[in-house]
Design goal:
Elements: H1 11-39, H2 43-54, E1 59-61, H3 62-69, H4 73-85, E2 89-94, E3 97-105, H5 107-127, H6 134-147
Antiparallel strand pairs: 1-3, 2-3
Amino acid sequence: MTLLRHEGLTVDELAVWRMLQRAQVRITRHLEAELLVAHDLPLASYDVLMQLAEAPERRLRMNDLADRVLLSRSGLTRLIDRLQRDGLVARQACADDARGLFAVLTERGASRLAEATPTYLRGIRTQFLDMLGPDELGEVRAMLAKLDITGAP
């Protein structure tokens, strides 16, 4: 007897959804573990440093940064507090908004990011890209592009 109704989803549709979830969690856990062991840097911290490094002037408004790293505002504030204590990020007031703050990548943060990036990229390669052939990579990209609501390339 089935305890839960699938509310219009087929067994196959639900299985694909669960496989996507498991793949994302497995890859994320692997990246997190590798970054922690090699660099004592949690994945969320790496993501913040990377977003700041790619931003103009290596800074982003806190609200924009929270959206990019998929954290709540309060979660990002706590993470930025830790990164600031470690000297990896600084806060800077917004000239045009007295209540606004920028998170800014420091030189120390840029160095730490540069040290951790090979580990991060190697993890993406071994845990994801090496599992796909050239044609499959294009297919995955096309499928995920249909789901991407951010409009990112």
